[in-house]
Amino acid sequence: MAASSETPAQSPTGTGDTEPPSRPRVRGRKRLVIVGGVVVVTAGLVAASIAVWRTEPQDPGEKVAQPHRAAVALPRPAAGQPRWAVPDHHWTALSKTWTTVSSGSGDFTGLRLVSDGKRAIAYEAGRLTAYDGATGKRIWWRALAWDGSYEPVAGDGIVIVPLHDSDSRFSDCVAFDSATGAQRWREPLCPGSSPADGPVGALSHGVFYYTAGRTVTGVDAATGERRYQRRFLHDLGLSTPVVANGRIVLSGSWWSPNRSTPGKSGIHLLSPDLKTDQDIPLSGDSDGEHVTMPDLPAVSGDVVLVRSGNAIRPVDTRTGRKPSLRWTTPQGNVVGVSGRTVVTAMTVYAGRRRVSGYDLLTGARVWSREIERKSFSYDIEDGTLFALGDGVAIIDSTTGKTVFQRPAARHDGNDIARQGRAVSAGGHIVVFDDKGGITGYH
Fold first, then answer.
1. Of 108, 147, 273, 281, which has the highest C-beta tally within 10 A?
2. Where do the domains of the chain lie, and which CATH numbers do they carry?
3. What is the reported pTM?
4. How far apart are the first and last CA of the chain?
5. What is the pLDDT of residues 172-229, one digit of tens each?
6. Nearest to residue 337, comparing CAs of 306, 310, 309?
7. Rg for the chain (alpha carbons), in Å?
8. Per-residue pLDDT tens for 6-16?
9. Dist. CA 353–CA 239, nearest whole Å
10. Of all residues in the chain, what percent carry a pLDDT higher than 70?
């Protein structure tokens, strides 16, 4: 492993706790996330919005009655159906517990937020900072030369961040201890997948998987030692890996070895050691569809969904079967799945501005609602669909109705909402607030 040129992790106090350099430029992102049985589609820099207001105004500091999470009974897969993940609870309201003050320069385009379950770990204003999810206390921070591509991933006691390396074509992957901020290892030439703005890779059973061009690699999450590697000679490119049913899933576009047959877009299902695989084409030139570069798949239990052309298609990774359905969502991406409803959000495109929910098994549209402003993006976390933008809102993903809204404290046109991330840490929901700080709700 290459030696680190990064600064050591800093404690919350000390002479090194100074403002970092200006924030690097960040590209937009597309995200496909699935929770339970509802799929939600979003674009990372969502040029779309949804009107989510309560009938009466609410003071941002107002206390909300407990409990904030409630049990929920959602339909579960029947015998022979794809086994999607079904949450047993969801959030019904939010009460502010803690807030940090932004250390940034007012440029909110470079914010990233992940969680290892206990800590919310944020990239902001040129540094990575870990906060206790329950109290908001800053645990450690360190300055990083992040180049703006990809998102960190956290789990298995580490957080993996893509860092700029001036001597390499791609960024390096650097793993830090999520409890202390100490560097564990550094992997060169990582990543180089498509799209270049999703997660940096995927963690599964102590292995970190990432793609670079046509190659997928698995390294030991604790040590960085390379364990598995596989090259796809006939793919045009590979997505960032995701994990479903213990299998590594990549979306890609490929040709036959002699290019005598039309190209295909679809997914590769790989064993954890990357030795065995199953190719599942979803579309191709022979179908009259243009072969497109892969988008990041979404996962719910054994079900993976991937955009292919202008459609989103589900695949059962346990059996390899693909239901004979598809739903068209121009310029939209899956945000998540909950209760068998697939939720999609469209950007402002050709006059279409909607967020919709579709049945995972039939492809039928369950609900749809007009998007009225440009400042909202969406995320599913802890079994709940959140709309982020003018404050934070909770939307019933099975009906599309707003069940809770906490407006922002100010309205100055900033674009924090476009970061579109809510994470669960320390029993709290943590989001970037309208001032560029971080807020924990319970």
1. 108
2. 30-441 (2.130.10.10)
3. 0.82
4. 41
5. 889 999 999 999 999 876 766 555 567 889 999 999 999 888 899 999 999 999 999 9
6. 306
7. 21
8. 556 766 544 33
9. 27
10. 64
Q: Give Cα 396 distance to the centre of its chain.
A: 20
CA–CA distance, 83 with 380 (Å, rounded to integer): 19
What six digits make up the tokens of 167?
A: 């001597």
**CB contact at 8 A, 112 and 422:** no
Instruction: Determine the Cα–Cα distance for residues 435 and 89; give it in Å rounded to an integer.
Output: 30
Q: How far, in Å, CA of 31 to CA of 333, rounded?
A: 6
**Number of neighbouring beta carbons within 10 Å of residue 257:** 9
pLDDT beyond 90 at 427: yes
Burial pattern 42-75, b for ≥16 Cβ within 10 A else e, equals: bbbbbbbbbebeeeeeeebeeeeeeebbeebebb
Residue type, 295: D
User: Which residues, other chains included, contact 241 with Cβ-Cβ below 8 Å and sequence gap of 6+?
Assistant: 201, 202, 209, 210, 211, 216, 248, 249, 250
Highest mean pLDDT of the ranges 53-67, 182-196, 307-321:
307-321
